[in-house]
Each structure stands twice: as structure tokens, then as C-alpha cells.
Amino acid sequence: MIRTAFLFFAVATGCSLSGVAQGAPVKAASKTAALERALDRANKGNLKPMHALLDRGLSPRMHLQGSPLLHFAATVHGPELARLLLARGARLDDRDADQNDALCIAALLGNAPVARVLLAAGADANSHNKDGDTPLHLATLVNAQAISSSGSADIARVLIAGHAQVNSRNKGGETPLHLAIGGQNFAIAKVLLQAGANPNARDKAGVTPTEVGKTWETMVLVATTSGKRKLTPSELADLKGWQSIKPLLGLNAAAPSKAASEFEHQVADLKSAPDVNTRYNAAEWLGKSHDPRALMPLLAAFSDKQWTVAEGAMLAVGELWQGTPTVRAQGSSPIVAALQKLGASKNETLRADAVQTLSDLGDAQSLTAARAFLKDASPLVRAEAITCAADHKDRAALAELRTIAQSDHAPAKNTTLSQLAAHAIAAIEMP
């Protein structure tokens, strides 16, 4: 997602943002843009922008893109945003157009930490959307490319512990086990069977979960997990030669080599995939992998000819930095050096993104590099640098901020930047 380079508290206090982009005036940034930016920061563990928006009157029940704000908390890795919104008055039963509540979204995304917070606050583990799907139904649909099979099993365990009914039915008469086996999500199917899911329940078409898959893997899983046969999973797999199912049941150590090959595949995609979206998605995957080896391929992608890929690589580096202690222990020098090179880019959006990534790093070396962008020719980039200084209360930036506040204040100049700088100075000097 392209990141907005506007100072969030400028929007909240009504400052005009016309003229922030270089060239022709642009429309004033909306509360939506500020909110999207605050959500982006929250996903990196920085709740200060969201606190500020809520303090300035943003409703915790506001809808963004058709969904209540609490739904977006389910897309954030940590549970802190969900706790904040609930404390400010967000409601657990607010729903989107498809009648999903926040717990439904957390289940669909496999976000067990947020699901725990919602359940502890009183969320209904057996709520349902317009299709009759409960959170446990939706948990079976977790995207295997976005979350591991163990992650989908974790969310199922959380929901079952929160009294989700394992044999609940949607409007098609399907139980969660129908969907799990139909989608070959064997990790969650095993959890459901162990919790008492009925492998012989028939949907409205008269089909049982066992018949949905009609594969040897399904038959082995149902037979062994529900106790219908005396053979152990390993014995049965060995007897029939079904070696492919053994990793699904956690019976050998094949997964690490698969993970290693997946990492190499993603690095190759980032470097040479012809499709821009594939390269962008590879960068995102590498950032979320929290693998220190991902750093150098991502830094190399800063020079990708497609600026959207370079932007995705910067987002991924921020993710990698926040979630990988080994990377932080090595220091920010190689990242800062790569971002400083982007200062010569003719693309002002890339330069603005570079500043935001420096802000995401947040150490002394990164803030020093970010201060240099306060003198950038583009108002968009300077606005991002002002944001960075305000967010980190960077007192070393005060002199340049005062220069911006004074020199840009004349009517012929960009009054927006002077206002932003004034707000930043006030934020930095606030006790």
C-alpha cells in the first residue's frame, strides 16, 4: 500500500495540506488518509498517531472502507491496537457489509493474539456472518501463503477455548470440518477432530467431511484422529506408503527444508520475477519472515526499476527491523546507507518513503539521516521529514524546523509546511 506522507496531527487540527505535493496543488489530506497512516504505524508497533487521532475526536467506531475500525486491529500483528480501541469505546458487535464482526476478521486472518483480546473482552465465539459462517468456519480459510498451518491451528485452539462450537453449521449446512478438509487445511482439521468434530456430519447436499476431500490423506486423518482404527498415524502412513501425509501429522522433520526452499524461492522472485506484483509480494513475504538473511536482498530491491517494488522493499525492511532482534543487533548502518542513496532519486514519493523508513528505524543514525531531508526540494519529502522529527521529539531538528516555520510563512510560500513545522516544534518542546 502506498504510504501517505502527511503529518497526522496536522490533519486532526485542520491544517490545509494544499501545495504539499510538488507542482500543481493537491487536495487536502482527509481524516481517512491520516487514519490509514496511523494504522500503518500501528502495524509497526507505534500507537502514538492513533492515540493522537483519538484524543482529537476520532470515533473508535468509525468505518474505513466499509469496515469498523476494530476490524483493522485484526490485521495488525500485535493486540495493542485492539486493546486501545476497545478502551476508547469500540464495540465488539460492530459489523461490516458482510456481517462479519471483529472476531470473524481475526479468525479469517489467523490472528490468535487479537482473537484472545476480543474473546477476553466478551466477543461471541459463535457469532456468524451473512453466510452463517462462524469465526471457527472462517479460521479454516486462513490463507496458507500468509500464515503457517500451525498458525491456523493456533487460532482454532483459541476459538475452541473460547467456547466455539466445533459442529456449528453455516447456511449450507457445512461444519468447520467440511471447510477444513475441503481446503486441505489438515492442521486445523486435526484440531477440530480432537475437539469432537463429527466426521460423519452431512451438509445440505448430504456430503460428509470425509467425502469432501476423498483423498487418502483425509481418510487417514479422520480414521486415526477420531479413533476409528487402532493403527497409529505413522503405522498407517508407512503401511500404505503415504509419506506425503507424515509432515501434515507432524511425524517427521521435513518442514524445515520446505521452509528453506520457500525462502530461496521468494528471494528469486524479488530479484527477477517479470511481474511487478510478484516482486512486491516477495518483498512483503521476506519482511514478514523475520529472517536476517532477507536484509541484503531487500536492500538490493531499493534500486528496482519499478518504484512500487522499491517501496514494498522499504516497508519490508521496516517490518524486518521491528521484528528481528538479530537485524537490530547488527545496527542500522547498511539500511541507512541504502536509504541515503535514494536521496538522489528523481521520484519524490520514493524519497518520502525513505524518510518514513528511517523514522521506522528510529535510532540515532537514522534520525540524523532523516534530518538531511528537511532541506529536500520537494514539500512532500520535507513534510515527511517534519513528521519524523515530531514523532521522535528530535531536538536536533529544532533549528531547521524553525527555519522552515519562518521562511515558508510568507503568503507566496507554502504555508502548509510552516504550520506543520510549528506543530512539530510544539510537539518536541512539550514537557
Describe this structure in words.
It is a single chain. The chain has 431 residues and is mainly α. It folds into two domains: 8-227, Serine Threonine Protein Phosphatase 5, Tetratricopeptide repeat (Alpha Horseshoe); 256-429, Alpha Horseshoe (Leucine-rich Repeat Variant), CATH 1.25.10.10. Helix content is 56%, strand content 1%. The chain has helices at residues 8-12, 31-42, 48-55, 69-73, 80-87, 102-108, 112-120, 135-139, 149-161, 176-182, 186-194, 209-213, 216-225, 233-240, 255-272, 276-289, 295-300, 307-323, 325-330, 333-341, 348-361, 364-372, 379-391, 398-407, 415-429; strands at residues 63-64, 67-68. It has a two-stranded antiparallel ribbon with strand order 1-2. Strand 1 (63-64) and strand 2 (67-68) form a beta hairpin. Helix 16 runs parallel beside helix 18. The protein is globular. The protein starts with 7 loop residues before the first helix and ends with a helix. Mean pLDDT is 78; it is low at 1-30, 143-150, 227-259 and 409-414.
The DSSP helix count reads: 25
How many individual β-strands?
A: 2
CATH superfamily of the largest domain: Ankyrin repeat-containing domain
Quote the beta fraction: under 5%
Structural class: mainly alpha
H/E order of the elements? Answer: HHHEEHHHHHHHHHHHHHHHHHHHHHH
What share of the residues lie within helices?
55-70%
